[in-house]
Amino acid sequence: MQSSVLSRFSHPLAWSPPGHILTHHLSTPPNHPSLTFRRRLQPVSAVASPPTPRLRRQMTHSMPPEKIEVFKSLESWASQWVLPLLKPVDQCWQPQDFLPDPTLPFDAFTDEVRTLRERTAGLPDEYFVVLVGDMITEDALPTYQTMINTLDGVRDETGASLCPWAVWTRSWTAEEKRHGDLLRTFLYLSGRVDMLMVEKTVQYLIGSGMDPGTENNPYLGFVYTSFQERATFISHGNTARLAKESGDPVLARICGTIASDEKRHENAYARIVEKLLEVDPSGAMIAISDMMRKKITMPAHLMYDGRDPKLFEHFSAVAQRLGVYTADDYADILEFLIGRWRLEKLEELNAEGRRAQDFVCGLAPRIRKLQERADERARKMEPHGASFSWIFNKEVALL
Ligand SMILES: [Fe+2]
Ligand SMILES: [Fe+2]
């Protein structure tokens, strides 16, 4: 199952009860079962949302300060090779290009909404679970811009910095903003989802943030974003395919158009890592290995709707079952990046770099083997489902 490979937070300890924080149990190790019990049943003091997740050990500023120079020295390269991968605003699509036109006379506008609803009628509820999860992931964009601006040497120091790294991050954010806006408005008009619960989930998620383990380190940060942009390219591509198969060509075009943005962004981030491999092969190779050891956590891994403490795990299971984003995709992305960055052929590595290379280049088959075993175990389990507040508490099969 996807979550077994991708999520570090699928364990019941991942969440404390909603609206509560924990007291410190200094004598109890963090994974001790009694703490689980206390967390779930004996909340001590109430605070405002969001709930407190269990995060990995937080490390900061792991890049040696002298390596900031690497990113300074690459500024003109970034202007020449990264910024052109942005699209000028007047050549970009906007959400309104795909949505009913509110400036039409009222009857014509409502006709367009009716047509939109007729087209979505063929899409099953489980599809909407995945589309909502994707939309919520996109809508937590403030978190991702924050994350990139934690990275030493490339952050936007002023909010309007002319440094090409900062220009990229702001313009990337501006392009990404259209994804959540478009999906959100589409879902609102479809009438198929409980927007109030969707909106609460977004608020919880942005309040919780994310824990990608990038340690203010742009080497780690750009490996993470390379992987993640490809993951979103794959998942939006699959929701496009499913929409087409279910008779909604407009939604297919929406998801496909978003996917093509993700591909362009993936290309930019992968190009940055490729350059780092050229100027600092061991440093970059070790960073790739470090991120893969930690596992790439999905950006919305802390999602919560105020009701289901395993919401992300359940959403991931539905995405896996529908083939929108699967453990196989995770291994495929890794193999793709190994090929894209020619990691197997990388030379001039120090001893640690070579160890990192061996680990990363042998990882995909190991992930697949683990997944086969997990699939086998899953086949022996009784089919079961989960209800999702996003679709009015209807139950959807997970297995
Ligand atoms: Fe996106
Ligand atoms: Fe993206």
Automatic annotation (TrEMBL):
InterPro entries: FADS-2_CS, Fatty_acid_desaturase-2, Ferritin-like_SF, RNR-like. Fe cation 1 binds at residues 138, 176, 179, 262. Its EC number is 1.14.19.-. Keywords: Chloroplast, Fatty acid biosynthesis, Fatty acid metabolism, Iron, Lipid biosynthesis, Lipid metabolism, Metal-binding, Oxidoreductase, Plastid, Transit peptide. It is an enzyme of class 1 (oxidoreductase). It is found in: Plastid, Chloroplast. Pfam families: FA_desaturase_2. SUPFAM superfamilies: Ferritin-like (SSF47240). Its cofactor is Fe(2+); Fe cation. GO terms for cellular component: chloroplast stroma. Binds 2 Fe(2+) ions per subunit. Binds 2 iron ions per subunit. GO terms for biological process: fatty acid biosynthetic process. PROSITE patterns: FATTY_ACID_DESATUR_2 (PS00574). One of its GO terms (molecular function) is metal ion binding. Gene3D superfamilies: Ribonucleotide Reductase, subunit A. Fe cation 2 binds at residues 176, 229, 262, 265. Homodimer. Introduction of a cis double bond between carbons of the acyl chain. Belongs to the fatty acid desaturase type 2 family. This is Acyl-[acyl-carrier-protein] desaturase. It comes from Camellia oleifera. The gene is SAD1.
